[in-house]
Amino acid sequence: MLDSIEKLLILQDRDRKIHRVQQELAQIAPERESLRSHASTTQTQLDAAKNRVKQIESERKQRDLEVEAKKSQIEKYANQQLLTRKNEEYKALAHEIEMAKEAVFKIEDQEIVLMEQAEAAQKEVARATGEANEAKKLADSQIAELGQREENFKKELADLQQGRAELASAVDESARNRYERLLKSKGDSAVVGIEHGVCGGCHMKLQQQLIVSCQAQKEIVTCSSCGRILYYTRDMILTGGD
Description:
The protein is mainly alpha-helical. It folds into 2 domains: 3-169, Helix Hairpins (Orthogonal Bundle), CATH 1.10.287.1490; 173-231, no CATH class. It contains 4 helices and 4 strands, in the order H-H-H-E-E-H-E-E. The chain has helices at 3-83, 87-169, 173-186, 208-216; strands at 191-195, 198-199, 221-222, 229-231. A hairpin with a 2-residue loop joins strand 1 (191-195) and strand 2. The two termini are 28 Å apart.
């Protein structure tokens, strides 16, 4: 194998490791945000459940006030009945008393419904509290783990990048420049092998002369279709299958 090809493969291996670590680092921020978002959502649900309990309690208090007001009216009308001597006025007051009593019955029915709603709302608060606490606990734990992973990856990346410059400087300048251009356009598969007569990068069939030149290992050979740098090792099968 050409010395320049061998050095390029070592450099490419380093670039692949750098790319892998960079991808791992890139995933940490979304994971962290997802954990925080889930914890925030469960807390919002808990707050909503608590507000629902407060709303129901407020409605119950309002109904209590309405009942007291109606009972006061009933007492007032009953007292007026005792004082009146007119039959029509007495009947009118009796009608008002009956209407007020019906209103009290309706309000009390509403209070029963509110009591049932309050019980269900309290159960929802209990459920939401448990879910929110669990989500926060899990988020805190996993975010701490992500922070440690992030630090480890940053250290690994710094070490990989620090050593890359030395590996790159060991490659012939012309070959290195060609590799760097391919690295930008083709990703971390700039130097590829030949298998069954096709390019290991674009998988297009190679001309026989290119295969022969690559096998000779006297110069850098590139794929005529994608421009990637080709290499050959003895364990590779050069000829295509039928």
